[in-house]
C-alpha cells in the first residue's frame, strides 16, 4: 500500500507497481481482495496499454491530471441523485422574512424596482399554484408552503401591490391611461399573469368577507384590467354573476368594478356588458318575494346607470327589447291561448317594463330616448287590457304605478284615471266567505287565487291601494290648468261608489279623497279666474302651471303628509318591528329600600295601571282596596323583601344581555374599508 501512496503523492500513474501492490494485497488480505473481485473488476484488470494511452491523450489535450473520468456504472443509482433535464429548479421557499422585505420595498418612498414587482407577482403565482394545482407543486422560481406564508403573500399583494404599480408607472398624480406610460411594456406580461391568477382566486372563493376584500382589490386594479380585452371580458363575466347573485355588499362592489372597467374601455365593452347585464336581470327577476325584491330593485337601478353611460348606444338596445315586449303582447292578443298570456303576465315581463320606464324617466332631460315614451306607454296600457278581471288587480296596480312614474318624470299626460276608477264598479258589498287575519300585500303578487278573493283582506287591500294610487295621480296633476276637467270622471265615479257602498271603512276613506279633490278643483278654478292671457299659448300656460306648483296646491300638500306616514309604515313592515314589539317594552323600576317598603301601604292613590306578577305588588293592590288589613300585611312585606332584591338583580342581568346583543348587531352591520384589519 506504500507504493500506491507514493505514486499518488507524486502524481504519477505506474501500472507495474500497481499490479505488484495488488498481488501483495492478495497475500496480506485475501478477503478484501475477493471483495474487490466481486464488486470492481476494472480495478483488478488494470491494463498497461490503457494507462499509456491515457498519458498520451492527457499530454496532447493539455488536460489537468486532477480531472476524473468515471467508468461505466454497474450498480443501481439512487433516485434522489436523479434530476430531469426539463425540470426547472425551484429557486427557494418563500419565507415570512422575504415577505416582510418585499413589503418594505413596495412601500419605499424611492423608486420601485421592477425586480421587486416581478418577485412579488411570481410569489403570488406560486401561492395560487399551491391552491389550484392537484399536487400543489410549483414549477416557477418560488415555492409557497404553509398557511401563514400563503396568507402573508396574498395580504401583501392586496394591500401594497396596486400602489407600488401605480408609483412604478408614474400614475400617482396624473390619472392617465396605463398603456401610455413608458414603463408599461416592461411590466405588461407580469400584469397579465397576476390578473389571471387574481381571477382564479376570485372564482374559487365563496366567503362574503374574502370576496369583499378581493373585489375592493380588483376595483383598484380595474385600470389595468381594462388594458387587456380578453382579461376584461373574463372578469366582467364573473362580476356580472356576483352582481346578480351575491350578498348586498358583494353586489355593490361587483357593480362598481363593472362600471369602472366598462368606462375605461367603453367603445369595446359597453355593448357586450349591456346585453349580458340585461339578460342576467331578466333571468334573476323570475321570482319575486320580500327577500328577492331588494336585489331586483338594486339590479334595476344599476342597469339604469349603465344604460345612461351612452344613450346613443343604449337606444338600439332599448328599442330592440321594447319591440320584443310588444311582439309578445301582440301574440297574446291575437292568439287567445294560456301560453301566450303567460308570456306577458309574469314577473320577467313586468320587471322589464319597470326597467325601461325607470330608464326613460331618468333620462327625460335628454332627447335620445324620448321617442320611446309613446310605444312603451302603449305596451303598458294594453298589458292592463289583456285580461281586465278582478283576479289580475295586483298586476294592474303595478302597471299603473309605472305609468304614474312615467307621467310625472317625463311631464307627459297619460290617461291613467280610467284604469283606476274602473275598479270602483266592483261589488264591495258582497259578503266574504273567509276571514283573513293578515292583510294581503300586492307588492309581490301579480295574480290572486280564488281563495284569496273570498277573504275580507282582498277588498281591504284593493281599497287601500286604490286610494293611494288615486291620491298620487291626482296630486301629480293638481297644478294642471285642466285639473277640474281631468278630475270630473273621478268625482262622478267616487260619488256613485259612496251611494252604493254600505261598508263604513271604505266610504270613509274615499269620501275624504273626494273632498280633497273637490277642494283642489275649486282652488284651480279661482286661480283660472285671474287669467288674462290666451289659452292657445303653451309656453305661458306651462309657466303658469309651474308657478302654481311652486306655490303649492291643497291636494299636493295632503299627499306629501300622507306619503310620509305611508313610508314609515312600509319601513316597519320591512324591518318587522311589529313582531319585535313584544320584547322591546321594559318597565324601569327604582330600587325600594327595606325601610321604605313598610311605609308604602299607608299611601293612598290611584291603582297601578300595569301591575307586575310579583307577589309583593299583588299585596300593594289589595292594600289599596282594603286599608283595614294593613297591619297584617306589613309582616308579610318584611318577609318577602329578599324576593324583591332577586327580581331587581334578574332585571339587571336581562338589561345587560340586551345591551350586549344590540352591540353585536351594530358591529355586524358595519362594512369596513380595505385595510390590514381585514385579516
TrEMBL record:
Record's keyword annotation contains Nucleus: yes
Any one GO MF annotation of this record: transcription corepressor activity
Biased composition (Acidic residues): 43-64
Intracellular or extracellular location(s): Nucleus
Pfam families in the cross-refs: Noc2 (PF03715)
Tree of life domain: Eukaryota
Alphabetical GO biological process terms: negative regulation of transcription by RNA polymerase II; ribosomal large subunit biogenesis
Official protein name in the record: Nucleolar complex protein 2 homolog
Classification lineage: Eukaryota, Metazoa, Ecdysozoa, Arthropoda, Hexapoda
Amino acid at each position: 500500500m506504500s507504493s500506491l501512496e507514493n505514486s499518488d503523492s507524486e502524481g504519477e500513474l505506474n501500472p507495474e507497481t500497481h499490479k505488484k501492490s495488488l498481488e501483495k494485497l492478495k497475500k496480506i488480505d485475501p478477503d478484501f481482495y475477493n471483495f474487490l473481485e466481486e464488486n470492481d473488476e476494472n480495478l483488478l484488470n488494470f491494463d498497461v496499454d490503457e494507462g499509456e494511452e491515457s498519458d498520451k491523450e492527457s499530454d496532447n489535450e493539455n488536460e489537468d491530471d486532477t480531472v476524473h473520468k468515471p467508468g461505466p456504472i454497474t450498480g443501481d443509482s439512487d433516485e434522489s441523485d436523479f434530476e430531469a433535464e426539463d425540470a426547472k429548479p425551484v429557486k427557494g421557499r418563500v419565507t415570512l422574512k422575504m415577505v416582510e422585505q418585499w413589503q418594505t420595498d413596495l412601500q419605499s418612498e424611492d423608486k420601485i424596482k421592477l425586480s421587486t414587482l416581478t418577485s412579488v407577482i411570481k410569489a403570488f403565482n406560486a401561492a395560487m399554484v399551491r391552491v389550484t394545482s392537484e399536487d400543489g407543486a410549483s414549477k416557477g422560481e418560488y415555492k409557497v408552503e404553509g398557511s401563514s406564508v400563503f396568507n402573508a403573500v396574498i395580504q401583501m399583494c392586496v394591500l401594497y401591490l396596486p400602489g407600488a404599480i401605480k408609483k412604478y408607472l408614474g400614475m400617482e398624480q396624473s390619472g392617465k391611461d396605463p398603456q401610455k406610460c413608458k414603463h408599461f411594456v416592461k411590466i405588461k406580461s407580469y400584469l397579465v399573469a397576476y390578473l389571471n391568477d387574481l381571477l382564479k382566486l376570485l372564482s374559487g372563493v365563496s366567503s362574503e368577507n374574502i370576496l369583499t376584500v378581493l373585489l375592493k382589490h380588483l376595483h383598484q386594479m380595474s385600470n389595468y384590467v381594462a388594458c387587456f380585452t380578453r382579461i376584461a371580458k373574463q372578469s366582467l363575466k364573473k362580476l356580472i354573476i356576483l352582481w346578480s347573485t351575491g350578498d348586498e355588499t358583494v353586489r355593490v362592489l361587483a357593480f362598481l368594478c363593472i362600471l369602472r372597467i366598462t368606462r375605461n374601455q367603453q367603445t369595446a365593452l359597453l355593448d357586450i356588458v349591456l346585453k349580458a347585464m340585461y339578460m342576467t336581470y331578466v333571468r334573476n327577476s323570475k321570482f319575486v318575494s320580500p327577500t328577492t325584491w331588494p336585489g331586483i330593485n338594486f339590479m334595476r337601478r344599476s342597469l339604469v346607470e349603465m344604460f345612461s353611460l351612452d344613450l346613443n348606444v343604449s337606444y338600439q338596445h332599448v328599442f330592440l327589447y321594447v319591440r320584443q315586449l310588444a311582439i309578445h303582447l301582440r301574440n297574446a292578443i291575437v292568439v287567445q291561448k294560456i301560453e301566450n298570456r303567460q308570456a306577458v303576465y309574469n314577473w320577467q315581463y313586468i320587471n322589464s317594463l319597470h326597467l325601461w320606464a325607470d330608464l326613460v324617466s331618468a333620462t327625460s332631460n335628454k332627447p335620445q330616448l324620448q321617442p320611446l315614451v309613446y310605444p312603451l306607454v302603449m305596451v303598458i296600457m294594453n298589458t292592463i287590457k289583456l285580461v281586465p278581471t278582478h283576479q289580475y288587480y295586483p298586476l294592474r296596480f303595478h302597471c299603473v304605478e309605472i305609468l304614474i312614474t312615467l307621467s310625472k318624470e317625463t311631464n307627459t299626460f297619460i290617461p291613467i284615471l280610467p284604469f283606476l276608477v274602473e275598479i270602483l264598479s266592483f261589488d264591495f258589498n258582497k259578503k266574504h266567505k273567509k276571514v283573513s287575519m293578515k292583510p294581503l300585500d300586492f307588492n309581490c303578487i301579480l295574480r290572486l287565487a280564488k281563495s284569496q278573493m273570498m277573504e275580507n283582506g282582498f277588498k281591504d287591500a284593493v281599497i287601500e291601494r286604490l286610494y293611494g294610487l288615486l291620491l298620487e295621480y291626482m296630486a301629480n296633476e293638481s297644478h294642471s290648468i285642466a285639473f277640474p276637467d281631468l278630475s270630473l270622471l273621478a268625482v262622478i265615479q267616487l260619488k256613485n261608489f259612496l251611494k252604493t257602498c254600505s261598508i263604513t271603512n271604505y266610504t270613509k276613506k274615499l269620501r275624504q279623497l273626494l273632498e280633497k279633490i273637490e277642494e283642489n278643483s275649486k282652488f284651480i278654478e279661482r286661480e283660472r279666474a285671474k287669467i288674462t292671457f290666451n289659452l292657445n299659448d303653451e309656453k305661458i300656460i306651462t309657466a303658469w302651471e309651474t308657478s302654481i306648483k311652486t306655490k303649492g296646491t291643497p291636494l299636493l300638500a295632503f299627499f306629501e303628509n300622507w306619503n310620509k306616514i305611508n313610508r314609515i309604515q312600509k319601513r316597519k313592515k320591512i324591518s318587522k318591528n311589529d313582531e319585535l314589539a313584544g320584547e322591546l317594552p321594559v318597565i324601569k323600576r327604582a330600587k325600594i329600600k327595606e325601610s321604605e317598603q313598610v311605609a308604602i301601604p299607608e299611601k293612598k292613590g290611584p291603582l297601578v295601571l300595569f301591575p307586575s306578577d310579583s307577589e309583593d305588588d299583588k299585596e300593594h293592590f289589595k292594600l289599596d282596596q282594603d286599608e283595614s288589613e294593613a297591619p297584617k300585611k306589613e309582616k308579610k312585606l318584611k318577609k318577602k323583601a329578599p324576593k324583591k332584591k332577586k327580581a331587581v338583580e334578574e332585571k339587571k342581568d336581562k338589561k345587560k344581555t340586551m345591551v350586549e346583543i344590540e352591540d353585536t348587531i351594530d358591529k355586524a352591520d358595519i362594512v369596513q374599508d380595505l385595510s390590514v384589519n381585514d385579516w
